[in-house]
Design goal:
Low-confidence stretches: none
Distance between the termini: 47 Å
Structural class: alpha/beta
Mean pLDDT: 95
Largest sheet: 5 strands, parallel
CATH topology of the largest domain: Rossmann fold
CATH architecture of the largest domain: 3-Layer(aba) Sandwich
Bound molecules: S-adenosylmethionine
Shape: globular
Helix content: 40-55%
Number of helices: 12
Oligomer: single chain
CATH class of the largest domain: Alpha Beta
CATH superfamily of the largest domain: Vaccinia Virus protein VP39
Number of domains: 2
Length: 279
């Protein structure tokens, strides 16, 4: 690929999704766009870039954006956020929302859905105890419609269910279909998936008590990280909880959150007025 084409693609991708592909990662265009070329019957990368320059086909642009996302995920990824959810967040929410008995959870970069379903399985563990008579809604969103379709189907390969998923959850919540596994209808009903771009978080998503926004900010520049955290803050209840990925932080990016003193890996939102007054 020539430099002007790389430059054009990088800028286009950044404008669409916020993803940053620097020149040293330009090889990713070559490796990831081959399936898009064959899907659209385009003979070369140069021809693909020429089509994008002419803005002929919105579908092509969406496919290019989706192809450039990294969708790596697995059940109970990193373990700790899920024990924090089980042991700290959930009991706190149940105590604070006793009269309402409603809990809304957002998996903000859901990829193929394992994070959202992991949270759903934990909630199921408490459906006859802490969460008896509660209405729990989990929303998973992602920019990639291909990922959202996969997540909605709740169908995973043998390899995927062997990554992080405890065997008792596999036997309780999944049914074998040929050489794949589908998560139960009950859990699929509990989790709704829709496409959404974190660059423009739709307010129609509503507000949430718990937000998992993990392993996506790392792909954005500082400015967009700040913007996304601002948007997340708007949708998070004043006494809500947010969890980021293991290598992600609000430090130097947003002043709108602080750690819960009881669990320093979980963020709580600060009021904008107090942040303004302090600043
Ligand atoms: C590495 S996965 C993280 C999945 C999951 N949260 C986890 O931690 O396992 C990152 C996801 O972010 C999505 N993504 C990238 N840019 C996005 C954007 N602007 N808006 C919404 N999702 C985006 C990608 O499509 C991808 O599925």
């Amino acid at each position: 690929m020539n430099i002007p084409d790389i430059d054009f693609l990088s800028k286009l991708l950044h404008a669409e999704s916020g993803l940053v592909i620097n020149a040293d990662k330009a090889y990713l265009f070559e490796s990831r766009l081959v399936p898009v070329m064959s899907k659209f019957g385009i003979a070369s990368l140069e021809a693909l870039v020429a089509d994008l320059r002419q803005k002929k086909d919105r579908g092509l642009l969406n496919s290019v954006t989706e192809a450039m996302t990294t969708n790596e995920t697995y059940f109970f990824r990193d373990t700790k956020p899920f024990s924090q959810f089980r042991e700290f967040i959930l009991p706190m929410m149940v105590k604070n929302r006793e009269s309402r008995k409603q809990l809304r959870i957002w998996s903000a970069a859901a990829a193929s859905g394992q994070e959202a379903y992991s949270l759903a399985m934990i909630c199921q563990d408490f459906k006859h105890s802490l969460l008896r008579d509660w209405q729990v809604t989990i929303i998973g969103t992602d920019i990639s419609s291909e990922m959202i379709d996969r997540a909605r189907s709740g169908i995973y390969s043998q390899f995927e269910v062997q990554r992080g998923l405890p065997i008792n959850y596999l036997t309780t919540h999944f049914t074998r279909i040929d050489n794949q596994w589908q998560i139960s209808e009950e859990l699929r009903k509990m989790v709704k998936f829709e496409t959404a771009n974190l660059k423009n978080i739709p307010s129609s998503l509503g507000t949430f008590d718990v937000i998992f926004c993990r392993n996506v900010l790392i792909y954005f520049d500082i400015q967009l990280r700040t913007q996304v955290l601002d948007g997340v803050h708007r949708l998070l209840a004043p006494d809500g909880a947010m969890i980021l990925g293991g290598t992600e932080t609000v430090m130097g990016i947003s002043e709108l959150f602080e750690m819960y003193p009881e669990d320093r890996g979980v963020y709580r939102p600060l009021s904008r007025i107090s942040v303004k007054a302090a600043g």
